[in-house]
Amino acid sequence: MDWMLLGAIGGLLILSAWVFEMAEDVKHHRGLRDIRFAFLYLPGISMLLAYSILTIEPVFIWVNSTILVVVVFEVIYTLHIIRGRRAGGKRHIKGNQRS
């Protein structure tokens, strides 16, 4: 088996899990459980992406850049939910009957 194919399949599985989790969060109007996770994760994934680019590893460039986009989306979505809660907006909040 070509090593690039092995890496691509592994990357696809990882990305599928991230996208599935993100879709579930949006579907149920949930943000990140703890946004501090993302503020630690973003610099880490950015550094890994830089390393992947510098070492010219196409599979890791693809995986890390896609995960970076997903995490940025999740942070923006979570901040949107938090802002809505603070403003007293009528957003659906898991465990609450408001809609």
TrEMBL record:
Keywords: Membrane, Transmembrane, Transmembrane helix. It comes from sediment metagenome. The keyword Membrane applies. This is Membrane protein. The chain crosses the membrane at residues 6-23, 35-54, 60-82.
